[in-house]
Each structure stands twice: as structure tokens, then as C-alpha cells.
Amino acid sequence: MAKNGTNTLTGLIPILYEALQVVSRELVGFIPATSRNMTKEGAALNQSIRVPITPPSENQDITPGKPPENGGEEFDYVDMMITKNRIARPIVWNGDEEISVGGQLSQLLINQYTQAMRSLVNEVERDVCAEGVLGALEAGNVYGSAGLTPFASGLDDLAAIKKVQDDLGTPLGDRHLLINTATGMALRKLTQLTNVNQAGENDMLRRGVLNDLMGYMLRESGGFMPSDPGTATGFTLSANAAAGATAIAVGALTGTILRGAVIVLGGKYYTVAADALVTATTLQLSHPLPEALPSGTDGTIMSSYMPNVAFSRDFIYLATRAPAMPRQGDEARDVTTITDPVSGLSFQVALYGVYRQVRVEIGLAWGVKAINKRHGVLLLG
To answer: Whole-angstrom Cα distance, residue 201 to residue 220?
Structure first.
């Protein structure tokens, strides 16, 4: 395509944006709520990105005639990475295929681009949801009962979450509560939110819109996955576990503990990082033990639950960029970027040509990390 659109993406831009309008209606509430004020074009795949953490301030006495000590501050940091460099399934057409579908070509292309971008958006959303759950668990901020959907009878759960975060010192501004669809259904059943005389508006009743409540922006996500802890109900340490350990010795398991299961050990929450089958004597933990635990310490395994996460925006960071290409260029005839106004994700669209055939690739590179874990709370459902 020279100027007629066969060698450039110009003729595809309207089709790409029409496809985005379908993708934008997916339940991807977590992505827009992340911190994304980082420019990471220079970060290679699996290269550390250092995010500085400002230490808390310490007050000093005022002594006339003696200036206060000023030794400067040492910043802490958290490392994150661009861990995924992905494209959706390439979209390939040749001339005979285009002729065979006739006037249906534009709609077929819309459908293909919709599915390509949807698969990327949904994968990012799942990654953000998983990291958000893990970050809140590592901080030990957990509320609710596994297996019981929040808001089944009122807004008491939200009031309790607010108290937890107020006590933690979570910033009052830019708070979010990301909920799964079952929790969303429970909220929509609350008459105090659907009765206009009580809610003061009809958005929930007429349009099903989840509005802000108690200082939280309520959003739904389809990226939360139910936990499956396995068949074991508990375990006991068979040896002393040192501070910093991520592998702990346990008595031979009488059931399975699956990867992602939430365990409570020494009063703190962990997730299991690898499957442990019947008779296994070692558990791999998601993060190190903060303190030593003696042999004989009992651990419990939380039953299956659906997660929800409350947080302030500084809790989790999402770094995205276009998949890298060599400076000299590759075989792509044209490359452009298209941005989803709802999720904020910018996709790289690359057009490749081979003999009597074209191939379009839609790609994205990303990484996600819970940075300020203290400001995230897992609400069990």
C-alpha cells in the first residue's frame, strides 16, 4: 500500500478506534486506578525500575542558639520491572481472502482488532488484580470473611474498611474500592442506594452505575480470580524458621495446598508460591518471614474467597510502554500507537508485509508492582 492505504496504517485507524469502543466497555476498573505517572521507555524487559520511597519525618526539639541537626534523608526504594512483552495473535490477510468476504471485510477487521486488544487489556487487568491482592496480603491488611459476599445487608463493610484505612493513615484523597462482580451485584440490591429518596440520585436505579461512597471511588473488575486453597486445612512447622526465610519445613501434609492459597502463620498473612501436594514437607512463601518462628508453630489455611481491594492510588504502580524495536527499524512497513481512553493503555500497532500478504500485530509491554503496600486492604468475599 503506498498512498492508497495498503502499505500504511492510515486506512485502518478508524477501524481500530471503532474496535476500541467495544473494548472500552470491558470491566477493567483496576487499570485506571493505578499510579501511572512514570515514563519507562528506556526500561528493557526484566530491567529493574527503582521507585523511591520517602521516609517518615522525625520531629526535633527546638533549642535556642542551637540549629537543629540536619543529616539529610536516606530514601528507601522498591524495584519493579517490565515483565511482559506481548502481542495478541497476529491478524493476517491475503488478497484472495479479502475478495472472498467482500463487503464484510471492515466488520471482520473490527472484530479481530477488538479481540486482540481485549485479550491484552484483560491480561493486564488480571495482573494488576493479582498484584493488588498480593500486596494487601503482604501488608497483613485483611478484612471480612472468606466465602461471604460483602454488602449483603448494608454498607457496614465499607464503613469498617474506611476505619481500617483511616487508622493506617491512608491518604483521604484518591481512594478506590475495586470489587468483583458478585460484590457489585450485592451493592445494587441495597435499597438505600436504589431508592432515590435515600440515595439522592437515580444513577444506580436507572443505569446501574456504582457511584462514589464514603470517599471511595467504586469500580468493578472482571480480573479478580477466586482462590482455590486445596484440600488441607492446616499445618505445623517441623523445624525453626529463620527470619527472611521463604521456604519453611512443615510436617507431612495430609492434603494439598495450592499455589495462591492464603495462609496465616504467626499472626501474619502469606500466599503459597508453589503447589504443595500430599505428604509434602516444605512450603514456599510469597514473601520472607519478618521474624523467626519456632518449631511447632501452627498455621491455618484460609478457605476459598473472591477478593476485593481498597487502596489509595499510591498503593500500586503500572508501567507500560510499546514493545521495543531496534533503532535501525525492522521489517515493519508502518507503526503507530492507539490509546484506549477508558483504560489508558496505549497499544503499538505494526503492519508487516510479505509476498501477497499483510500481517498486523498489536502489542504492549508492561509491569505492575504494589509499592506502598500499607495503603492496600484486602476485602474478602
So the answer is: 20
